[in-house]
Here is the input.
Amino acid sequence: SLTGHEREGGTPRPPTPEEERDFLSALAPLRDSGRLAAVCYQFPPWFTNRPDSRERLLEVRERHPDDIVAVEFRHRSWFDGDALPQTEELLRELDTVLVGVDAPQIGSGTAPPHMAITSPRLCIARFHGRNWRTWYKRVQTTAERFDFLYKPAQLQSWTAAIEAAADQGVPVHVLLNNNASNYAVVNAFDMAQLLGLSPRKPPRQVRETMRERDGRVPAWVESAPEPPLSSGEGEGGAQLSLTV
Here is the structure.
């Protein structure tokens, strides 16, 4: 209900005071421990670019006065034509992150691949896969909707924008949401290599998936250093972070 996914009679149901209180309460342990990077609101396709929707964005921002807030749109009305600069300007005024989305480009219920810095505090790129067959389909699990394994060349189309944001001193989080099988993990290693983060040697299962996809294990994998015995070391640099 906080994002308008739940509808009653075709109209998004607003959250109750209890739901809003419980949501904010659930965030408190993460915030208190310093682990709350941002609060991301993924809006549904029926959250279109209208005055009441823009007012809703202001309400979201006011709900989190001390947090970094990110929004992900699922309708092209926020991006097409003159709407894009207006969307970016609104989010800059609200100090809110516009999530860059990689998703199937089919119909109006999606977002074009676009990355912009609308907050100096964070930039986010989120990858859902490009499985157009299941994008609008009623599925049993999210893994069915996001059942897609990127090839490195498909990920590489984002590296220039990601690196440009990082070069401006903005922290960048790259989120892999293609959560079928081990695809997100495989693509996280791909992206780390493409961004020059010198990833460690992937686990055996990841290497096997790479072999099945490419017909061979990528050359960089063979020369990559073995991972440390401790599991506490993650991939990423001062300005770049990968999450699956």
Q: What stands out?
A: Confidence is low (pLDDT under 50) at residues 233-238. The longest strand covers residues 123-127.
